[in-house]
Amino acid sequence: MYVWDFYTVLQSWDLFLYGLWITFVYSVGSIVLGVIFGLIVCFARLSRIRLFSASARVYLELFRCMPLLVLVLWFYYALPMLIGMSMENTTAAMLALALYVSSFYAEIFRGGIKAIDTGQFEAGAAIAMSHAQVMRRIILPQAAKKMLPAFINQSIIQVKNTSLASVIAVADLSYMGAVVNGETYRPLESYTFVAFMYFLLLFPLTQFADRVEKKLRQSD
Amino acid sequence: MNDAPPIFSVRNLAKSFGAIHVFSGINLDVAKGQVIGVIGPSGCGKSTLIRCLNMMEVPNSGEIYFHGRPTTPNFRGRNGAIGAGELRRKVGMVFQQFNLFPHKTVIENVIEGPVVVLKEKKEEAKERAMALLSSVGLADKRDAYPNHLSGGQKQRVAIARALAMRPEVMLFDEVTSALDPELVGEVLNVMRKLATAGMTMVIVTHEMAFAADVADRVIFLDEGTIAAEGSADDVIHKPKQERLKRFLARFHA
Predict the structure, then answer these.
(1) Which end of chain A, N or C, is surrounded by fewer C-beta atoms within 10 Å?
(2) Residue A165 lies in a domain
(3) Residue closest to A31 by CA, chosen among A94, A79, A74, A88
(4) B118 Cα to chain A: minimum distance (Å)
(5) Phi, psi of B93 (to 5 degrees)
(6) Which ipTM was obtained for this model?
(7) Which chain A residue is nearest to residue B117, measuring alpha carbons?
(8) Could you tell me the residue range of the domain that residue A27 belongs to?
(9) Residue A68 belongs to domain with CATH number
(10) What total number of domains does chain A contain?
(11) Is there a domain that residue A1 lies in?
(12) pTM for this one?
């Protein structure tokens, strides 16, 4: 009979807390950067300029066909040699995470915009608004509501994705599981506790996502 | 008839969508204060024609002159041509599907153009908007959202929204075709008031009695050309052409 011993593992509570903080930083950081890149790629994809829309489609296919783990390793080991610059593991991880999620966000944004009736574009144009004004004042506010559930869900997935930064030794929550296990030789308690902390982090978010979805369905 | 040059001069206009030929050889003048009715079978290009007038559709060939200036589909005009941005400030449009902004209240819909495009101050725009909403009978709906309005109310708000831009010409694209019959009258009354007040209007409609009543001139668009043209009396009450007679027979005039 295995004797559980969380006490030994919890001695390193400060490490776990630090790991949780790092996970939080990479989650928020990659989501924010992902939104910025995602918006750029989305508008490139929708652009009438062939060069922009073609480049965007290449970008999107690339990230759709690549596992995040491979991406993280590639950004850390391969990219520095290609561009001749050394890269910290932290930079490589943040970049890989941000670009990966940006491709999903770009498609979510595009879906939201496409869901808006063309009559809205026409009504804005008919009162002499420029394309940018129609987008900013008429289309995007409506699209934002439509894409909110998909966006929140993708962001929740992204929080889990940050765990892959641990494979290039970023000191996040997952990495701390390995560190504490290395000290205590108690993988069961170490990784169970890490799983528990991820659950604590994500459960409020999933509940929030469900509430938002319910509220949006009511207002339709 | 005044001797002032027409507001719109359409010369030899042609439009196709790919292989589908919509119309060609269209010549039309719209003088200030005139109300032009455009009638014809569905799909004959009536909507396409008036959408060319504010460059929502780009004609394949021919010219459209606004106050003597050639129009261009670019947002900014060049070399004296009037661009779509400037044109649409002077030519308003009301759509069959209303197309109100659902995330804005009624009054926000009406002030959107004046505030964002004409750069008016919000307070002044709101005052003018209230006057316009009163004139279409919807002053009490100022803070309502479009999804709480009936079709007729939505269309009247859409008219107020277009009028808020202080246009010289108003284009109406089958604006009552999507309405329940009992709501059509309230919209036509607003349009009749506008016409009486001297607004230049181009109205695509299936409401023959209304067109006969309000229009100074009626054009009958059929099979890609203007098959008949004249006063409301000539075209609707005393049609001469066979196609026109057959078309009108479908309506209990």
Answers:
(1) N
(2) yes
(3) A94
(4) 9
(5) -135, 140
(6) 0.90
(7) A129
(8) 6-219
(9) 1.10.3720.10
(10) 1
(11) no
(12) 0.85
